[in-house]
Specification:
The structure is a single chain. The protein is of the alpha/beta class and 470 residues long. It has two domains: 2-142, Alpha-D-Glucose-1,6-Bisphosphate, Chain A, domain 4 (2-Layer Sandwich), CATH 3.30.530.20; 152-469, Rossmann fold, CATH 3.40.50. The protein has 15 helices and 15 strands. The protein has helices at 14-22, 27-30, 119-142, 152-159, 161-166, 170-179, 200-211, 226-237, 252-265, 292-312, 348-369, 388-393, 395-401, 408-420, 450-469, and strands at residues 2-10, 34-39, 50-57, 60-72, 76-82, 86-97, 100-111, 191-195, 215-220, 243-246, 271-274, 319-324, 375-380, 431-433, 436-438. The strands form two sheets. It has an eight-stranded mixed β-sheet with strand order 10-9-8-11-12-13-14-15, sandwiched between helices. A seven-stranded antiparallel β-sheet has the order 1-7-6-5-4-3-2. Helix 9 packs parallel to helix 10. The protein is globular and about 80 Å long. The structure holds NADP nicotinamide-adenine-dinucleotide phosphate (NAP). Residues 196, 198-202, 220-222, 248-250, 275-278, 296, 324, 326, 381-382, 384-385, 387-390, 411 line the site of NADP nicotinamide-adenine-dinucleotide phosphate. NADP nicotinamide-adenine-dinucleotide phosphate binds next to helix 7 and helix 12.
Length: 470
Protein backbone atom coordinates (compact mmCIF):
# COMPACT_ATOMS: atom_id res chain seq x y z
CA UNK A 1 0.00 0.00 0.00
CA UNK A 2 1.33 3.47 -0.87
CA UNK A 3 0.00 6.47 0.99
CA UNK A 4 0.50 9.94 -0.52
CA UNK A 5 -0.17 13.09 1.42
CA UNK A 6 0.06 16.69 0.21
CA UNK A 7 -1.27 20.02 1.48
CA UNK A 8 -1.81 23.35 -0.24
CA UNK A 9 -3.25 26.72 0.79
CA UNK A 10 -5.09 28.89 -1.72
CA UNK A 11 -6.69 32.32 -1.73
CA UNK A 12 -10.18 31.11 -2.61
CA UNK A 13 -13.30 30.64 -0.54
CA UNK A 14 -13.76 27.25 1.08
CA UNK A 15 -17.05 26.82 -0.85
CA UNK A 16 -15.34 27.38 -4.22
CA UNK A 17 -12.51 24.97 -3.33
CA UNK A 18 -14.91 22.27 -2.17
CA UNK A 19 -17.19 22.61 -5.21
CA UNK A 20 -14.31 22.60 -7.69
CA UNK A 21 -12.50 19.62 -6.19
CA UNK A 22 -15.50 17.44 -5.40
CA UNK A 23 -16.72 17.77 -8.99
CA UNK A 24 -14.15 15.28 -10.25
CA UNK A 25 -14.85 16.26 -13.88
CA UNK A 26 -12.26 18.94 -13.15
CA UNK A 27 -9.55 16.40 -12.30
CA UNK A 28 -8.21 16.42 -15.88
CA UNK A 29 -7.54 20.16 -15.45
CA UNK A 30 -5.13 19.74 -12.55
CA UNK A 31 -4.07 16.11 -11.95
CA UNK A 32 -0.70 15.17 -13.41
CA UNK A 33 -1.94 11.92 -15.00
CA UNK A 34 -5.68 12.41 -15.69
CA UNK A 35 -6.40 13.09 -19.37
CA UNK A 36 -10.21 12.98 -19.52
CA UNK A 37 -12.90 12.88 -16.91
CA UNK A 38 -16.68 12.67 -17.15
CA UNK A 39 -19.62 12.18 -14.80
CA UNK A 40 -21.31 8.81 -15.30
CA UNK A 41 -24.32 9.28 -13.02
CA UNK A 42 -27.15 11.77 -13.32
CA UNK A 43 -27.89 14.50 -10.83
CA UNK A 44 -26.01 17.07 -8.82
CA UNK A 45 -22.64 16.23 -7.31
CA UNK A 46 -23.08 14.42 -3.99
CA UNK A 47 -22.87 11.09 -2.24
CA UNK A 48 -22.87 8.30 -4.84
CA UNK A 49 -21.86 10.47 -7.83
CA UNK A 50 -19.54 8.53 -10.13
CA UNK A 51 -16.87 9.66 -12.57
CA UNK A 52 -14.90 7.91 -15.29
CA UNK A 53 -11.32 9.14 -15.40
CA UNK A 54 -8.74 8.11 -17.99
CA UNK A 55 -5.16 8.48 -16.83
CA UNK A 56 -1.86 8.14 -18.64
CA UNK A 57 0.62 6.33 -16.42
CA UNK A 58 3.89 6.03 -18.32
CA UNK A 59 3.09 4.20 -21.55
CA UNK A 60 -0.10 2.70 -20.06
CA UNK A 61 -3.63 4.12 -20.16
CA UNK A 62 -5.66 3.42 -17.03
CA UNK A 63 -9.45 3.72 -16.77
CA UNK A 64 -10.64 4.52 -13.26
CA UNK A 65 -14.17 4.52 -11.99
CA UNK A 66 -14.50 6.90 -9.04
CA UNK A 67 -17.37 7.19 -6.61
CA UNK A 68 -17.99 9.77 -3.92
CA UNK A 69 -18.37 7.68 -0.74
CA UNK A 70 -18.46 10.51 1.79
CA UNK A 71 -19.63 14.06 1.07
CA UNK A 72 -19.59 16.73 3.71
CA UNK A 73 -19.84 20.30 2.26
CA UNK A 74 -17.56 22.35 2.82
CA UNK A 75 -15.41 20.22 5.09
CA UNK A 76 -14.45 17.00 3.30
CA UNK A 77 -15.05 14.65 0.43
CA UNK A 78 -13.90 11.05 0.05
CA UNK A 79 -13.68 9.28 -3.32
CA UNK A 80 -12.81 5.68 -4.07
CA UNK A 81 -11.32 4.97 -7.49
CA UNK A 82 -11.12 1.48 -8.96
CA UNK A 83 -9.05 0.29 -11.93
CA UNK A 84 -7.70 -3.01 -13.24
CA UNK A 85 -4.38 -2.40 -11.52
CA UNK A 86 -5.20 -0.67 -8.27
CA UNK A 87 -7.78 0.85 -5.99
CA UNK A 88 -7.32 4.32 -4.51
CA UNK A 89 -9.08 6.10 -1.66
CA UNK A 90 -8.78 9.91 -1.84
CA UNK A 91 -9.59 11.78 1.37
CA UNK A 92 -9.72 15.53 0.80
CA UNK A 93 -10.36 17.97 3.64
CA UNK A 94 -10.86 21.73 3.59
CA UNK A 95 -10.23 24.21 6.41
CA UNK A 96 -10.12 28.01 6.59
CA UNK A 97 -7.08 29.61 8.20
CA UNK A 98 -5.68 33.13 7.93
CA UNK A 99 -7.86 34.16 4.98
CA UNK A 100 -6.88 31.10 2.99
CA UNK A 101 -8.41 27.71 2.33
CA UNK A 102 -6.13 24.82 3.27
CA UNK A 103 -6.63 21.62 1.31
CA UNK A 104 -5.25 18.39 2.67
CA UNK A 105 -5.18 15.50 0.19
CA UNK A 106 -4.42 11.90 1.13
CA UNK A 107 -4.46 9.08 -1.43
CA UNK A 108 -4.13 5.44 -0.32
CA UNK A 109 -3.25 3.05 -3.16
CA UNK A 110 -3.80 -0.73 -2.98
CA UNK A 111 -2.40 -2.72 -5.90
CA UNK A 112 -3.91 -5.82 -7.57
CA UNK A 113 -2.39 -8.53 -9.74
CA UNK A 114 0.75 -8.91 -7.66
CA UNK A 115 1.81 -5.34 -8.43
CA UNK A 116 2.20 -4.83 -4.69
CA UNK A 117 5.67 -6.40 -4.89
CA UNK A 118 6.75 -3.47 -7.12
CA UNK A 119 5.62 -0.87 -4.58
CA UNK A 120 9.12 0.24 -3.65
CA UNK A 121 9.98 0.95 -7.27
CA UNK A 122 6.65 2.71 -7.91
CA UNK A 123 6.74 4.85 -4.80
CA UNK A 124 9.17 7.55 -5.96
CA UNK A 125 7.20 8.21 -9.18
CA UNK A 126 3.92 8.19 -7.29
CA UNK A 127 5.12 10.80 -4.81
CA UNK A 128 6.34 13.01 -7.63
CA UNK A 129 2.96 12.63 -9.37
CA UNK A 130 1.11 13.51 -6.13
CA UNK A 131 3.19 16.65 -5.65
CA UNK A 132 2.68 17.76 -9.26
CA UNK A 133 -1.06 17.15 -9.04
CA UNK A 134 -1.46 19.33 -5.97
CA UNK A 135 0.67 22.04 -7.62
CA UNK A 136 -1.77 21.77 -10.55
CA UNK A 137 -4.74 22.09 -8.20
CA UNK A 138 -3.22 25.16 -6.54
CA UNK A 139 -2.68 26.74 -9.95
CA UNK A 140 -6.25 25.95 -11.01
CA UNK A 141 -7.67 27.61 -7.90
CA UNK A 142 -5.19 30.49 -7.61
CA UNK A 143 -4.00 31.51 -11.05
CA UNK A 144 -4.75 35.10 -12.03
CA UNK A 145 -6.28 35.28 -15.50
CA UNK A 146 -4.35 36.17 -18.64
CA UNK A 147 -6.02 36.93 -21.99
CA UNK A 148 -6.68 33.95 -24.26
CA UNK A 149 -4.22 33.56 -27.11
CA UNK A 150 -4.03 31.62 -30.35
CA UNK A 151 -1.57 28.73 -30.19
CA UNK A 152 1.06 28.41 -32.92
CA UNK A 153 -0.31 25.03 -33.91
CA UNK A 154 -3.86 26.37 -34.41
CA UNK A 155 -2.59 29.40 -36.31
CA UNK A 156 -0.73 27.04 -38.66
CA UNK A 157 -3.83 24.89 -39.18
CA UNK A 158 -5.97 27.97 -39.93
CA UNK A 159 -3.59 28.99 -42.73
CA UNK A 160 -4.74 25.90 -44.63
CA UNK A 161 -8.44 25.41 -45.16
CA UNK A 162 -8.62 21.61 -44.71
CA UNK A 163 -6.81 21.39 -41.32
CA UNK A 164 -8.80 24.43 -40.16
CA UNK A 165 -12.08 22.70 -41.04
CA UNK A 166 -10.89 19.36 -39.57
CA UNK A 167 -10.83 21.09 -36.19
CA UNK A 168 -14.63 21.38 -36.34
CA UNK A 169 -14.77 17.65 -35.55
CA UNK A 170 -14.49 16.01 -32.13
CA UNK A 171 -10.74 15.67 -32.77
CA UNK A 172 -10.41 19.45 -32.74
CA UNK A 173 -12.15 19.51 -29.37
CA UNK A 174 -9.97 16.73 -27.96
CA UNK A 175 -6.80 18.43 -29.19
CA UNK A 176 -7.85 21.62 -27.40
CA UNK A 177 -8.57 19.85 -24.11
CA UNK A 178 -4.95 18.76 -23.85
CA UNK A 179 -3.68 22.34 -23.98
CA UNK A 180 -6.30 24.32 -22.10
CA UNK A 181 -6.01 26.25 -18.86
CA UNK A 182 -8.17 25.18 -15.92
CA UNK A 183 -11.33 27.15 -15.25
CA UNK A 184 -12.40 27.16 -11.62
CA UNK A 185 -14.79 30.13 -11.80
CA UNK A 186 -18.24 30.04 -10.23
CA UNK A 187 -21.06 32.38 -11.21
CA UNK A 188 -23.14 32.62 -8.05
CA UNK A 189 -25.84 35.23 -8.50
CA UNK A 190 -24.75 36.26 -12.01
CA UNK A 191 -27.81 36.79 -14.19
CA UNK A 192 -27.48 34.96 -17.50
CA UNK A 193 -30.03 35.00 -20.31
CA UNK A 194 -29.85 32.14 -22.82
CA UNK A 195 -31.96 31.78 -25.96
CA UNK A 196 -32.83 28.35 -27.38
CA UNK A 197 -32.12 26.80 -23.99
CA UNK A 198 -34.21 23.63 -24.25
CA UNK A 199 -32.18 21.67 -26.79
CA UNK A 200 -28.68 20.82 -28.05
CA UNK A 201 -26.02 23.40 -27.26
CA UNK A 202 -28.42 25.69 -25.39
CA UNK A 203 -29.44 22.90 -23.03
CA UNK A 204 -25.85 21.80 -22.39
CA UNK A 205 -24.95 25.45 -21.68
CA UNK A 206 -27.91 25.90 -19.34
CA UNK A 207 -26.98 22.79 -17.33
CA UNK A 208 -23.32 23.81 -16.99
CA UNK A 209 -24.13 27.40 -16.01
CA UNK A 210 -26.79 26.25 -13.54
CA UNK A 211 -24.11 24.01 -11.97
CA UNK A 212 -21.87 27.07 -11.74
CA UNK A 213 -24.50 28.83 -9.64
CA UNK A 214 -25.76 31.35 -12.24
CA UNK A 215 -29.19 32.93 -11.96
CA UNK A 216 -30.70 31.78 -15.27
CA UNK A 217 -33.40 33.22 -17.48
CA UNK A 218 -34.02 30.80 -20.33
CA UNK A 219 -35.89 31.87 -23.45
CA UNK A 220 -37.65 29.07 -25.33
CA UNK A 221 -40.41 29.24 -27.90
CA UNK A 222 -42.60 26.27 -27.08
CA UNK A 223 -44.57 26.55 -23.80
CA UNK A 224 -45.10 22.76 -23.85
CA UNK A 225 -41.34 22.27 -23.43
CA UNK A 226 -41.12 24.41 -20.28
CA UNK A 227 -41.93 21.62 -17.78
CA UNK A 228 -39.60 19.12 -19.43
CA UNK A 229 -36.79 21.69 -19.39
CA UNK A 230 -37.32 22.54 -15.72
CA UNK A 231 -37.48 18.84 -14.81
CA UNK A 232 -34.23 18.14 -16.66
CA UNK A 233 -32.47 21.05 -14.99
CA UNK A 234 -33.73 19.99 -11.57
CA UNK A 235 -32.65 16.38 -11.98
CA UNK A 236 -29.24 17.27 -13.51
CA UNK A 237 -28.30 20.15 -11.22
CA UNK A 238 -30.69 20.14 -8.27
CA UNK A 239 -31.73 23.71 -9.18
CA UNK A 240 -35.38 24.70 -9.27
CA UNK A 241 -34.93 28.48 -9.12
CA UNK A 242 -34.74 28.98 -12.89
CA UNK A 243 -36.89 31.38 -14.89
CA UNK A 244 -38.29 30.42 -18.28
CA UNK A 245 -39.63 33.00 -20.76
CA UNK A 246 -41.59 32.06 -23.84
CA UNK A 247 -40.94 33.81 -27.17
CA UNK A 248 -40.91 32.85 -30.83
CA UNK A 249 -37.71 34.69 -31.61
CA UNK A 250 -38.34 34.71 -35.36
CA UNK A 251 -41.11 37.24 -34.64
CA UNK A 252 -39.93 40.75 -33.83
CA UNK A 253 -43.10 41.38 -31.81
CA UNK A 254 -42.20 38.41 -29.57
CA UNK A 255 -38.61 39.63 -29.24
CA UNK A 256 -39.85 43.05 -28.16
CA UNK A 257 -42.38 41.50 -25.77
CA UNK A 258 -39.82 39.31 -23.98
CA UNK A 259 -37.40 42.25 -23.74
CA UNK A 260 -40.16 44.42 -22.28
CA UNK A 261 -40.85 41.76 -19.65
CA UNK A 262 -37.18 41.54 -18.70
CA UNK A 263 -36.83 45.34 -18.62
CA UNK A 264 -39.87 45.55 -16.36
CA UNK A 265 -38.25 43.10 -13.93
CA UNK A 266 -35.18 45.35 -14.03
CA UNK A 267 -32.65 42.65 -13.13
CA UNK A 268 -29.25 43.58 -14.63
CA UNK A 269 -27.96 41.01 -17.13
CA UNK A 270 -24.36 39.83 -16.74
CA UNK A 271 -24.32 37.55 -19.77
CA UNK A 272 -26.61 37.34 -22.80
CA UNK A 273 -26.18 34.25 -24.95
CA UNK A 274 -27.73 34.52 -28.42
CA UNK A 275 -27.87 30.81 -29.18
CA UNK A 276 -31.31 30.03 -30.68
CA UNK A 277 -31.07 29.05 -34.31
CA UNK A 278 -32.17 26.69 -37.04
CA UNK A 279 -31.27 25.88 -40.62
CA UNK A 280 -34.40 26.14 -42.78
CA UNK A 281 -34.13 23.98 -45.88
CA UNK A 282 -37.38 25.41 -47.23
CA UNK A 283 -38.05 29.02 -47.98
CA UNK A 284 -40.76 30.71 -45.90
CA UNK A 285 -41.74 34.10 -44.61
CA UNK A 286 -42.66 34.70 -40.98
CA UNK A 287 -46.12 36.06 -40.23
CA UNK A 288 -44.41 39.47 -40.10
CA UNK A 289 -43.15 39.08 -43.67
CA UNK A 290 -39.45 38.48 -42.98
CA UNK A 291 -37.58 35.58 -44.56
CA UNK A 292 -37.29 33.13 -41.65
CA UNK A 293 -33.50 32.48 -41.70
CA UNK A 294 -32.81 36.20 -41.68
CA UNK A 295 -35.46 36.76 -39.01
CA UNK A 296 -34.30 34.11 -36.55
CA UNK A 297 -30.54 34.13 -37.10
CA UNK A 298 -29.86 37.83 -37.56
CA UNK A 299 -32.77 40.20 -36.92
CA UNK A 300 -33.72 38.43 -33.69
CA UNK A 301 -30.32 38.52 -31.88
CA UNK A 302 -29.87 42.10 -33.10
CA UNK A 303 -33.19 43.30 -31.74
CA UNK A 304 -32.93 41.29 -28.53
CA UNK A 305 -29.47 42.61 -27.73
CA UNK A 306 -30.33 46.20 -28.65
CA UNK A 307 -33.50 46.22 -26.56
CA UNK A 308 -31.78 44.60 -23.56
CA UNK A 309 -28.92 47.14 -23.60
CA UNK A 310 -30.24 49.06 -20.56
CA UNK A 311 -29.84 45.86 -18.50
CA UNK A 312 -26.41 45.06 -19.95
CA UNK A 313 -24.60 48.35 -19.87
CA UNK A 314 -22.45 50.21 -17.37
CA UNK A 315 -21.92 47.43 -14.82
CA UNK A 316 -18.76 47.62 -12.70
CA UNK A 317 -17.44 44.39 -14.19
CA UNK A 318 -18.00 44.01 -17.93
CA UNK A 319 -21.19 42.26 -18.99
CA UNK A 320 -20.83 39.77 -21.81
CA UNK A 321 -22.75 39.19 -25.02
CA UNK A 322 -22.03 35.87 -26.73
CA UNK A 323 -23.24 35.23 -30.27
CA UNK A 324 -23.35 31.63 -31.49
CA UNK A 325 -22.50 31.44 -35.19
CA UNK A 326 -21.40 28.58 -37.42
CA UNK A 327 -18.28 27.43 -39.26
CA UNK A 328 -20.55 27.49 -42.33
CA UNK A 329 -20.09 31.26 -42.40
CA UNK A 330 -16.50 30.75 -43.61
CA UNK A 331 -17.89 30.08 -47.08
CA UNK A 332 -19.76 33.39 -47.34
CA UNK A 333 -18.84 37.04 -47.75
CA UNK A 334 -20.98 39.76 -46.22
CA UNK A 335 -23.06 41.51 -48.84
CA UNK A 336 -26.05 43.14 -47.16
CA UNK A 337 -28.28 43.01 -50.22
CA UNK A 338 -27.76 39.21 -50.43
CA UNK A 339 -28.71 38.47 -46.82
CA UNK A 340 -32.35 37.94 -47.62
CA UNK A 341 -32.64 35.14 -50.16
CA UNK A 342 -35.78 34.34 -52.11
CA UNK A 343 -36.82 31.62 -54.58
CA UNK A 344 -35.65 30.43 -57.01
CA UNK A 345 -32.11 30.90 -55.67
CA UNK A 346 -33.02 30.33 -51.98
CA UNK A 347 -30.87 27.63 -50.38
CA UNK A 348 -31.23 27.05 -46.67
CA UNK A 349 -27.54 26.36 -46.00
CA UNK A 350 -26.51 29.49 -47.86
CA UNK A 351 -29.08 31.75 -46.20
CA UNK A 352 -27.93 30.30 -42.86
CA UNK A 353 -24.23 30.85 -43.61
CA UNK A 354 -24.84 34.43 -44.77
CA UNK A 355 -26.78 35.31 -41.62
CA UNK A 356 -24.04 33.75 -39.44
CA UNK A 357 -21.35 35.69 -41.35
CA UNK A 358 -23.31 38.90 -40.74
CA UNK A 359 -23.72 38.09 -37.03
CA UNK A 360 -19.95 37.56 -36.79
CA UNK A 361 -19.29 41.00 -38.31
CA UNK A 362 -21.98 42.49 -36.08
CA UNK A 363 -20.18 41.10 -33.02
CA UNK A 364 -17.04 43.03 -34.01
CA UNK A 365 -19.04 46.24 -34.55
CA UNK A 366 -20.90 45.93 -31.24
CA UNK A 367 -17.64 45.23 -29.37
CA UNK A 368 -16.28 48.53 -30.64
CA UNK A 369 -19.48 50.54 -30.01
CA UNK A 370 -20.20 49.25 -26.53
CA UNK A 371 -16.65 49.23 -25.16
CA UNK A 372 -17.30 52.41 -23.22
CA UNK A 373 -20.49 50.91 -21.78
CA UNK A 374 -18.39 48.10 -20.30
CA UNK A 375 -19.98 45.44 -22.50
CA UNK A 376 -17.78 42.86 -24.15
CA UNK A 377 -19.05 41.00 -27.20
CA UNK A 378 -17.60 37.76 -28.48
CA UNK A 379 -18.71 35.30 -31.07
CA UNK A 380 -18.13 31.55 -31.12
CA UNK A 381 -18.77 28.65 -33.40
CA UNK A 382 -19.21 25.20 -31.94
CA UNK A 383 -17.65 23.09 -34.70
CA UNK A 384 -19.90 20.19 -35.69
CA UNK A 385 -22.02 18.87 -32.81
CA UNK A 386 -24.59 16.10 -32.81
CA UNK A 387 -27.70 18.03 -31.73
CA UNK A 388 -31.41 17.65 -32.51
CA UNK A 389 -31.01 20.67 -34.82
CA UNK A 390 -28.36 18.93 -36.93
CA UNK A 391 -30.35 15.68 -36.96
CA UNK A 392 -33.46 17.36 -38.33
CA UNK A 393 -31.92 19.90 -40.76
CA UNK A 394 -28.86 17.99 -42.00
CA UNK A 395 -29.67 14.24 -41.82
CA UNK A 396 -27.29 13.30 -44.67
CA UNK A 397 -24.42 15.35 -43.26
CA UNK A 398 -25.10 13.76 -39.87
CA UNK A 399 -25.09 10.20 -41.17
CA UNK A 400 -21.79 10.78 -43.03
CA UNK A 401 -20.02 12.56 -40.17
CA UNK A 402 -21.65 10.81 -37.20
CA UNK A 403 -18.41 9.27 -35.94
CA UNK A 404 -16.56 12.57 -35.84
CA UNK A 405 -19.29 14.83 -34.48
CA UNK A 406 -18.85 16.42 -31.09
CA UNK A 407 -21.34 15.88 -28.30
CA UNK A 408 -23.62 18.80 -27.40
CA UNK A 409 -21.49 19.37 -24.29
CA UNK A 410 -18.32 19.53 -26.39
CA UNK A 411 -19.96 21.92 -28.85
CA UNK A 412 -21.20 24.11 -26.01
CA UNK A 413 -17.87 24.15 -24.17
CA UNK A 414 -16.71 27.49 -25.62
CA UNK A 415 -20.08 29.17 -24.95
CA UNK A 416 -19.78 28.09 -21.30
CA UNK A 417 -16.16 29.21 -21.13
CA UNK A 418 -16.97 32.62 -22.70
CA UNK A 419 -19.73 33.10 -20.12
CA UNK A 420 -17.72 31.90 -17.15
CA UNK A 421 -13.94 32.17 -17.44
CA UNK A 422 -12.15 35.18 -16.00
CA UNK A 423 -9.77 35.40 -18.96
CA UNK A 424 -12.69 35.43 -21.41
CA UNK A 425 -13.58 38.79 -19.84
CA UNK A 426 -10.29 40.24 -21.08
CA UNK A 427 -11.15 40.20 -24.81
CA UNK A 428 -13.89 41.61 -27.00
CA UNK A 429 -14.78 41.48 -30.67
CA UNK A 430 -13.25 38.07 -31.32
CA UNK A 431 -14.42 34.82 -32.86
CA UNK A 432 -13.67 31.68 -30.82
CA UNK A 433 -13.54 27.96 -31.41
CA UNK A 434 -12.37 25.69 -28.60
CA UNK A 435 -11.50 28.59 -26.30
CA UNK A 436 -9.03 30.07 -28.81
CA UNK A 437 -9.52 33.27 -30.79
CA UNK A 438 -9.71 32.26 -34.45
CA UNK A 439 -9.54 33.98 -37.77
CA UNK A 440 -12.98 35.02 -39.09
CA UNK A 441 -11.72 34.36 -42.63
CA UNK A 442 -10.32 31.04 -43.83
CA UNK A 443 -10.68 32.25 -47.46
CA UNK A 444 -9.40 35.69 -48.52
CA UNK A 445 -12.30 36.10 -50.95
CA UNK A 446 -14.80 36.19 -48.07
CA UNK A 447 -13.46 39.42 -46.52
CA UNK A 448 -16.17 42.06 -46.78
CA UNK A 449 -15.61 45.64 -47.90
CA UNK A 450 -15.59 48.53 -45.42
CA UNK A 451 -18.70 49.90 -47.16
CA UNK A 452 -20.60 46.65 -46.50
CA UNK A 453 -19.58 46.68 -42.81
CA UNK A 454 -20.77 50.27 -42.52
CA UNK A 455 -24.15 49.46 -44.05
CA UNK A 456 -24.88 46.33 -42.05
CA UNK A 457 -26.60 47.73 -38.98
CA UNK A 458 -28.78 50.16 -40.91
CA UNK A 459 -29.75 47.35 -43.26
CA UNK A 460 -30.84 45.03 -40.43
CA UNK A 461 -32.64 47.83 -38.56
CA UNK A 462 -34.61 48.72 -41.71
CA UNK A 463 -35.74 45.09 -42.07
CA UNK A 464 -36.73 44.93 -38.39
CA UNK A 465 -38.73 48.13 -38.84
CA UNK A 466 -40.46 46.69 -41.90
CA UNK A 467 -41.48 43.65 -39.84
CA UNK A 468 -42.80 45.87 -37.06
CA UNK A 469 -44.97 47.74 -39.55
CA UNK A 470 -46.39 44.51 -41.02
N1 LIG B 1 -24.91 21.72 -33.78
C1 LIG B 1 -23.99 22.20 -34.59
O1 LIG B 1 -23.13 21.48 -35.13
C2 LIG B 1 -23.95 23.67 -34.87
C3 LIG B 1 -22.98 24.12 -35.76
C4 LIG B 1 -22.90 25.47 -36.00
C5 LIG B 1 -23.75 26.35 -35.37
N2 LIG B 1 -24.71 25.88 -34.54
C6 LIG B 1 -25.60 26.87 -33.91
O2 LIG B 1 -25.76 26.55 -32.56
C7 LIG B 1 -27.01 27.06 -32.09
C8 LIG B 1 -27.75 25.95 -31.36
O3 LIG B 1 -28.08 24.94 -32.30
P1 LIG B 1 -28.21 23.41 -31.93
O4 LIG B 1 -27.34 22.66 -32.84
O5 LIG B 1 -28.08 23.22 -30.47
O6 LIG B 1 -29.70 23.13 -32.43
P2 LIG B 1 -31.04 22.69 -31.67
O7 LIG B 1 -30.77 21.49 -30.87
O8 LIG B 1 -32.09 22.62 -32.71
O9 LIG B 1 -31.32 23.92 -30.72
C9 LIG B 1 -31.77 25.14 -31.25
C10 LIG B 1 -32.56 25.89 -30.21
O10 LIG B 1 -33.08 27.09 -30.80
C11 LIG B 1 -34.47 27.14 -30.56
N3 LIG B 1 -35.22 27.85 -31.59
C12 LIG B 1 -35.33 27.54 -32.89
N4 LIG B 1 -36.19 28.39 -33.48
C13 LIG B 1 -36.62 29.25 -32.53
C14 LIG B 1 -37.50 30.33 -32.51
N5 LIG B 1 -38.17 30.73 -33.61
N6 LIG B 1 -37.71 30.99 -31.36
C15 LIG B 1 -37.08 30.61 -30.24
N7 LIG B 1 -36.23 29.58 -30.18
C16 LIG B 1 -36.00 28.92 -31.32
C17 LIG B 1 -34.90 25.70 -30.53
O11 LIG B 1 -36.19 25.56 -29.94
P3 LIG B 1 -37.11 24.27 -30.31
O12 LIG B 1 -36.55 23.11 -29.56
O13 LIG B 1 -38.45 24.68 -29.84
O14 LIG B 1 -37.04 24.09 -31.78
C18 LIG B 1 -33.77 25.10 -29.72
O15 LIG B 1 -33.95 25.37 -28.36
C19 LIG B 1 -27.74 27.58 -33.31
O16 LIG B 1 -27.58 28.99 -33.38
C20 LIG B 1 -27.01 26.91 -34.46
O17 LIG B 1 -27.08 27.67 -35.64
C21 LIG B 1 -24.85 24.55 -34.27
Amino acid sequence: MIKLHEEIAVQRSIEDCFRYVSDFRTVSEWDATARTSSKSTQGPIGLGTRFIVHCAVGPTKVRLEYEIVDYCPWASVVLVGKSRFFEVRDVITFTEKEAKTHISYTADFKYHLGLGSFENRLEYGMRDMGRKSLEGLKKALDTPSSPPTLSKCTARADRWVAPGVAMFSKWGYRRSVAQRKPDSTFLDGQHIVITGANSGLGLATSIALAESGADLTLIIRNPKKREELLTTLKSETGRSDITVEIADLSLMADVRAVSTRLLAKGKPIDVLINNAGALFNNYALTSEGLEQSFALLLASPTLLTQTLLPLLKDHTTPSRVINVVSGGMYTEKLVCQRLIMAPPEYQGAQAYARAKRALTVLGELWAEQWRENNIIVNTMHPGWADTPGVASALPTFRSITKRILRTSEEGADTIIWLARAKEAGDVSGKLFLDREPRTPYLLARTKESAAQRDQLEDYIDAQIDSASEA
